[in-house]
Amino acid sequence: MSETTALVLVENEVTVGGDYDFWADDTGVQYHYPNQYRNRVRPGRLFVYYRGVRRARGRRGNAEYFGSGIIGDVWPDPAQPTETPPAKRRWLCSIEQYAPFSRPVRAKDRGRVFERMSSNLGWRTGVREIPVGTFGKILRAASPGAVQNRNRAASNVDAASVTVVERAVDLLLKRPQAGPRAGPPEYGAGGQRATEIGTWGEELVYQWLERTLPEEGRRTLDWISHRGEVPGWDIEYRSSGDRVAIEVKTTTVSRFTSIPMTSNEWDAAKSNGKNYAIALVVKAMTTHPGIALLWDPSAAHEAGSLLIEPVGYRLTQV
To answer: How do the pLDDT tens digits run along the chain, 318 residues long?
Structure first.
Protein backbone atom coordinates (compact mmCIF):
# COMPACT_ATOMS: atom_id res chain seq x y z
CA MET A 1 0.00 0.00 0.00
CA SER A 2 2.93 2.37 0.54
CA GLU A 3 3.32 2.76 -3.23
CA THR A 4 -0.13 4.26 -3.65
CA THR A 5 -0.85 5.88 -0.27
CA ALA A 6 0.84 8.22 2.19
CA LEU A 7 0.04 9.01 5.82
CA VAL A 8 -1.38 11.92 7.76
CA LEU A 9 0.09 12.08 11.28
CA VAL A 10 -2.11 14.08 13.66
CA GLU A 11 -0.12 16.12 16.18
CA ASN A 12 -2.44 18.40 18.13
CA GLU A 13 -1.21 20.91 20.68
CA VAL A 14 -3.94 19.75 23.09
CA THR A 15 -6.72 17.15 23.03
CA VAL A 16 -10.33 17.27 24.19
CA GLY A 17 -10.31 17.34 27.99
CA GLY A 18 -6.57 16.67 27.95
CA ASP A 19 -7.25 12.91 27.97
CA TYR A 20 -4.60 12.20 25.31
CA ASP A 21 -2.00 14.85 26.06
CA PHE A 22 0.44 12.18 27.27
CA TRP A 23 1.66 11.30 23.78
CA ALA A 24 5.43 11.94 23.61
CA ASP A 25 5.53 13.47 20.13
CA ASP A 26 8.57 15.54 19.20
CA THR A 27 7.93 17.32 15.90
CA GLY A 28 10.37 16.21 13.23
CA VAL A 29 12.10 13.80 15.62
CA GLN A 30 9.69 11.09 16.80
CA TYR A 31 5.99 10.18 16.78
CA HIS A 32 4.12 8.30 19.53
CA TYR A 33 1.00 6.30 18.66
CA PRO A 34 -1.31 3.47 19.82
CA ASN A 35 -1.26 -0.13 18.63
CA GLN A 36 -4.24 0.33 16.31
CA TYR A 37 -2.00 2.20 13.85
CA ARG A 38 0.92 -0.22 13.98
CA ASN A 39 0.26 -1.69 10.53
CA ARG A 40 0.05 1.77 8.98
CA VAL A 41 3.18 3.33 10.47
CA ARG A 42 5.96 1.49 8.66
CA PRO A 43 9.55 2.53 7.80
CA GLY A 44 9.82 4.38 4.51
CA ARG A 45 6.27 5.73 4.28
CA LEU A 46 5.72 9.35 3.30
CA PHE A 47 3.60 11.52 5.59
CA VAL A 48 2.29 15.02 6.25
CA TYR A 49 1.72 16.47 9.71
CA TYR A 50 -1.78 17.72 10.59
CA ARG A 51 -3.17 19.63 13.57
CA GLY A 52 -6.78 20.46 14.41
CA VAL A 53 -8.27 23.72 15.63
CA ARG A 54 -7.48 23.38 19.35
CA ARG A 55 -4.37 25.15 20.56
CA ALA A 56 -2.65 25.46 23.93
CA ARG A 57 -4.08 27.80 26.61
CA GLY A 58 -7.59 27.63 25.17
CA ARG A 59 -6.72 29.26 21.87
CA ARG A 60 -8.08 28.15 18.51
CA GLY A 61 -6.57 28.15 15.04
CA ASN A 62 -7.04 26.68 11.60
CA ALA A 63 -7.10 22.95 10.94
CA GLU A 64 -3.96 22.62 8.83
CA TYR A 65 -1.06 20.59 7.49
CA PHE A 66 2.31 21.96 8.60
CA GLY A 67 5.16 19.68 7.49
CA SER A 68 6.18 16.46 5.76
CA GLY A 69 8.70 13.67 6.12
CA ILE A 70 9.34 9.92 6.03
CA ILE A 71 8.72 7.30 8.72
CA GLY A 72 12.02 6.00 10.10
CA ASP A 73 12.67 3.30 12.68
CA VAL A 74 9.78 1.83 14.69
CA TRP A 75 10.06 0.41 18.22
CA PRO A 76 7.84 -0.40 21.25
CA ASP A 77 7.35 2.32 23.86
CA PRO A 78 9.94 1.38 26.52
CA ALA A 79 7.89 3.14 29.22
CA GLN A 80 4.95 0.73 28.99
CA PRO A 81 4.76 -2.29 31.35
CA THR A 82 5.95 -5.55 29.81
CA GLU A 83 2.60 -7.16 30.57
CA THR A 84 0.64 -4.58 28.53
CA PRO A 85 -1.96 -6.45 26.38
CA PRO A 86 -1.19 -6.27 22.63
CA ALA A 87 -4.27 -4.18 21.86
CA LYS A 88 -3.20 -1.51 24.37
CA ARG A 89 0.49 -1.29 23.43
CA ARG A 90 2.08 1.98 22.33
CA TRP A 91 4.75 2.53 19.72
CA LEU A 92 7.33 5.13 18.69
CA CYS A 93 8.84 5.90 15.33
CA SER A 94 11.64 8.22 14.32
CA ILE A 95 11.03 10.91 11.70
CA GLU A 96 13.39 11.28 8.74
CA GLN A 97 13.77 14.08 6.20
CA TYR A 98 11.40 16.38 8.07
CA ALA A 99 10.62 19.62 6.24
CA PRO A 100 8.40 22.21 7.95
CA PHE A 101 6.17 24.01 5.47
CA SER A 102 7.07 27.62 4.78
CA ARG A 103 3.37 28.29 5.33
CA PRO A 104 0.75 25.88 6.75
CA VAL A 105 -1.88 24.55 4.37
CA ARG A 106 -5.46 24.83 5.55
CA ALA A 107 -7.34 21.53 5.53
CA LYS A 108 -10.51 23.37 4.52
CA ASP A 109 -10.18 26.59 2.57
CA ARG A 110 -12.91 28.28 0.50
CA GLY A 111 -14.54 24.99 -0.44
CA ARG A 112 -11.27 23.12 -1.04
CA VAL A 113 -10.84 19.96 1.05
CA PHE A 114 -7.84 17.66 0.62
CA GLU A 115 -9.37 14.85 2.69
CA ARG A 116 -13.03 13.96 2.35
CA MET A 117 -14.48 12.48 5.53
CA SER A 118 -17.87 10.85 5.94
CA SER A 119 -18.19 12.51 9.38
CA ASN A 120 -16.27 14.74 11.76
CA LEU A 121 -15.08 11.61 13.57
CA GLY A 122 -12.77 10.88 10.65
CA TRP A 123 -10.77 14.04 11.32
CA ARG A 124 -10.02 12.71 14.82
CA THR A 125 -8.25 9.61 13.51
CA GLY A 126 -4.66 9.87 14.70
CA VAL A 127 -3.02 8.26 11.67
CA ARG A 128 -4.88 8.43 8.36
CA GLU A 129 -4.04 7.18 4.87
CA ILE A 130 -4.36 9.41 1.81
CA PRO A 131 -3.59 8.80 -1.87
CA VAL A 132 -0.09 9.83 -2.89
CA GLY A 133 -1.74 12.22 -5.34
CA THR A 134 -3.37 14.04 -2.42
CA PHE A 135 -0.03 14.04 -0.60
CA GLY A 136 1.52 15.76 -3.63
CA LYS A 137 -1.25 18.35 -3.79
CA ILE A 138 -0.69 19.29 -0.14
CA LEU A 139 3.06 19.71 -0.72
CA ARG A 140 2.51 21.82 -3.82
CA ALA A 141 0.10 24.05 -1.90
CA ALA A 142 2.75 24.51 0.80
CA SER A 143 5.59 25.50 -1.54
CA PRO A 144 7.34 22.24 -0.65
CA GLY A 145 10.95 22.00 0.40
CA ALA A 146 11.05 25.47 1.91
CA VAL A 147 12.41 25.61 5.44
CA GLN A 148 10.87 28.11 7.82
CA ASN A 149 13.83 30.35 7.28
CA ARG A 150 13.78 33.65 9.09
CA ASN A 151 17.57 33.88 9.05
CA ARG A 152 19.07 33.02 5.69
CA ALA A 153 22.58 33.51 7.06
CA ALA A 154 23.97 32.18 10.33
CA SER A 155 25.70 35.54 10.77
CA ASN A 156 22.27 37.03 11.52
CA VAL A 157 21.87 34.89 14.65
CA ASP A 158 22.39 36.77 17.91
CA ALA A 159 25.24 35.10 19.82
CA ALA A 160 23.23 35.21 23.04
CA SER A 161 20.43 33.17 21.46
CA VAL A 162 22.66 30.15 20.68
CA THR A 163 22.13 27.34 23.20
CA VAL A 164 25.32 25.44 24.06
CA VAL A 165 24.50 21.91 25.20
CA GLU A 166 27.14 20.43 27.50
CA ARG A 167 26.27 16.78 26.83
CA ALA A 168 26.20 16.04 23.11
CA VAL A 169 24.25 12.82 23.73
CA ASP A 170 21.30 14.97 24.83
CA LEU A 171 20.89 15.94 21.15
CA LEU A 172 20.69 12.28 20.09
CA LEU A 173 17.39 10.42 20.12
CA LYS A 174 17.94 7.03 21.77
CA ARG A 175 16.00 4.36 19.91
CA PRO A 176 15.73 1.12 21.93
CA GLN A 177 14.93 -1.98 19.91
CA ALA A 178 14.95 0.08 16.72
CA GLY A 179 14.05 -1.65 13.50
CA PRO A 180 15.63 -1.22 10.04
CA ARG A 181 16.34 2.30 8.91
CA ALA A 182 14.16 3.91 6.29
CA GLY A 183 16.96 5.81 4.57
CA PRO A 184 19.25 8.78 5.05
CA PRO A 185 17.89 11.53 7.33
CA GLU A 186 17.37 15.09 6.20
CA TYR A 187 20.78 16.23 7.34
CA GLY A 188 22.43 13.50 5.25
CA ALA A 189 20.37 13.93 2.10
CA GLY A 190 21.76 15.43 -1.06
CA GLY A 191 20.56 18.36 -3.08
CA GLN A 192 20.65 22.12 -2.86
CA ARG A 193 18.55 22.35 0.30
CA ALA A 194 20.78 19.97 2.26
CA THR A 195 23.84 21.90 1.11
CA GLU A 196 22.27 25.16 2.28
CA ILE A 197 21.47 23.70 5.70
CA GLY A 198 24.95 22.19 6.06
CA THR A 199 26.71 25.40 5.12
CA TRP A 200 24.53 27.35 7.55
CA GLY A 201 25.57 25.03 10.35
CA GLU A 202 29.26 25.25 9.50
CA GLU A 203 29.10 29.03 9.46
CA LEU A 204 27.37 29.07 12.84
CA VAL A 205 30.00 26.78 14.41
CA TYR A 206 32.85 28.79 12.88
CA GLN A 207 31.47 32.04 14.33
CA TRP A 208 30.83 30.41 17.70
CA LEU A 209 34.41 29.11 17.88
CA GLU A 210 35.68 32.53 16.82
CA ARG A 211 33.94 34.01 19.85
CA THR A 212 34.80 31.35 22.42
CA LEU A 213 38.25 29.92 21.66
CA PRO A 214 41.41 31.12 23.42
CA GLU A 215 43.74 33.42 21.49
CA GLU A 216 45.75 30.62 19.81
CA GLY A 217 42.58 28.94 18.60
CA ARG A 218 41.07 32.15 17.23
CA ARG A 219 44.31 33.03 15.44
CA THR A 220 44.57 29.62 13.73
CA LEU A 221 40.86 28.99 13.13
CA ASP A 222 40.26 27.83 9.54
CA TRP A 223 37.00 26.89 7.77
CA ILE A 224 38.66 24.50 5.34
CA SER A 225 35.54 22.96 3.78
CA HIS A 226 34.59 26.46 2.61
CA ARG A 227 37.61 26.21 0.27
CA GLY A 228 36.54 22.79 -0.97
CA GLU A 229 38.96 20.72 1.11
CA VAL A 230 37.53 17.42 2.43
CA PRO A 231 40.05 15.73 4.76
CA GLY A 232 37.24 14.33 6.95
CA TRP A 233 36.40 17.49 8.86
CA ASP A 234 35.13 21.00 8.11
CA ILE A 235 36.90 23.33 10.54
CA GLU A 236 40.25 23.18 12.29
CA TYR A 237 42.35 25.18 14.74
CA ARG A 238 45.40 24.79 16.96
CA SER A 239 45.40 24.11 20.68
CA SER A 240 48.78 23.90 22.47
CA GLY A 241 50.28 23.41 19.03
CA ASP A 242 48.09 20.41 18.17
CA ARG A 243 45.55 20.43 15.35
CA VAL A 244 41.92 20.10 16.45
CA ALA A 245 39.50 18.87 13.77
CA ILE A 246 35.78 19.70 13.86
CA GLU A 247 33.24 17.96 11.64
CA VAL A 248 29.86 19.76 11.55
CA LYS A 249 26.50 17.98 11.31
CA THR A 250 23.34 20.03 11.04
CA THR A 251 19.60 19.43 11.29
CA THR A 252 16.58 21.74 11.29
CA VAL A 253 14.86 19.86 14.14
CA SER A 254 15.60 19.65 17.87
CA ARG A 255 17.48 16.33 17.95
CA PHE A 256 19.32 13.91 15.71
CA THR A 257 17.92 10.44 15.13
CA SER A 258 21.44 9.42 14.08
CA ILE A 259 24.66 11.07 12.90
CA PRO A 260 25.52 10.38 9.25
CA MET A 261 29.23 9.95 8.56
CA THR A 262 31.23 9.09 5.47
CA SER A 263 34.01 6.51 5.61
CA ASN A 264 36.46 9.38 5.15
CA GLU A 265 35.06 11.20 8.19
CA TRP A 266 35.11 8.06 10.33
CA ASP A 267 38.71 7.32 9.36
CA ALA A 268 39.58 10.90 10.33
CA ALA A 269 37.79 10.48 13.67
CA LYS A 270 39.83 7.36 14.43
CA SER A 271 43.17 8.84 13.37
CA ASN A 272 42.70 12.13 15.24
CA GLY A 273 41.25 10.60 18.41
CA LYS A 274 40.74 13.07 21.25
CA ASN A 275 41.49 15.97 18.89
CA TYR A 276 38.44 15.21 16.74
CA ALA A 277 34.92 16.40 17.52
CA ILE A 278 31.55 16.33 15.82
CA ALA A 279 29.76 19.65 16.22
CA LEU A 280 26.03 18.93 16.34
CA VAL A 281 23.84 21.84 15.26
CA VAL A 282 20.09 21.63 15.89
CA LYS A 283 17.23 23.99 15.02
CA ALA A 284 19.22 25.27 12.08
CA MET A 285 17.87 28.17 10.01
CA THR A 286 16.10 29.60 13.09
CA THR A 287 16.85 32.40 15.54
CA HIS A 288 17.55 29.98 18.43
CA PRO A 289 19.82 27.14 17.28
CA GLY A 290 21.72 24.78 19.57
CA ILE A 291 25.30 23.50 19.46
CA ALA A 292 27.03 20.58 21.17
CA LEU A 293 30.48 19.01 20.69
CA LEU A 294 30.83 15.24 20.65
CA TRP A 295 34.52 14.66 21.34
CA ASP A 296 36.42 11.55 20.23
CA PRO A 297 33.47 9.57 18.77
CA SER A 298 35.81 6.69 17.94
CA ALA A 299 36.60 6.18 21.63
CA ALA A 300 32.89 6.38 22.45
CA HIS A 301 32.29 3.64 19.91
CA GLU A 302 35.05 1.50 21.40
CA ALA A 303 33.52 2.01 24.84
CA GLY A 304 30.15 0.81 23.56
CA SER A 305 28.19 4.06 24.02
CA LEU A 306 27.89 4.71 20.27
CA LEU A 307 26.94 2.24 17.55
CA ILE A 308 28.20 2.63 14.01
CA GLU A 309 26.61 0.72 11.14
CA PRO A 310 26.85 0.79 7.33
CA VAL A 311 23.73 2.18 5.64
CA GLY A 312 24.62 2.18 1.94
CA TYR A 313 26.14 0.16 -0.87
CA ARG A 314 27.77 0.99 -4.19
CA LEU A 315 27.72 -1.20 -7.31
CA THR A 316 30.37 -0.99 -10.03
CA GLN A 317 30.93 -3.01 -13.19
CA VAL A 318 33.75 -5.60 -13.09
So the answer is: 445 899 999 998 765 554 555 688 888 889 999 999 999 999 889 999 999 887 777 788 889 999 998 898 899 998 899 899 999 999 999 888 788 887 899 998 777 889 987 766 667 788 999 998 899 899 888 864 444 444 557 877 888 889 999 999 888 877 654 444 444 444 444 556 678 889 999 999 999 999 999 999 999 999 999 999 999 999 999 999 999 999 999 988 788 878 889 999 999 999 999 999 999 999 888 888 999 999 999 999 999 988 887 766 667 676
Within 8 A by CB and 6+ apart from 47, the residues are: 6, 7, 8, 9, 68, 69, 70, 71
CATH, range 5-141: 3.10.590.10
Please check whether residue 31 is in contact with residue 41, taking contact to mean a CB–CB distance below 8 angstroms.
Answer: yes
Spans of all domains in the chain: 5-141, 154-303
SS3 76: strand
Strands of the sheet containing 64-76, edge to edge, are 30-34, 90-106, 64-76, 46-51, 5-10, 127-131
Same fold, 5-141 and 154-303: no
Looking at domain 154-303, its CATH class is: alpha beta
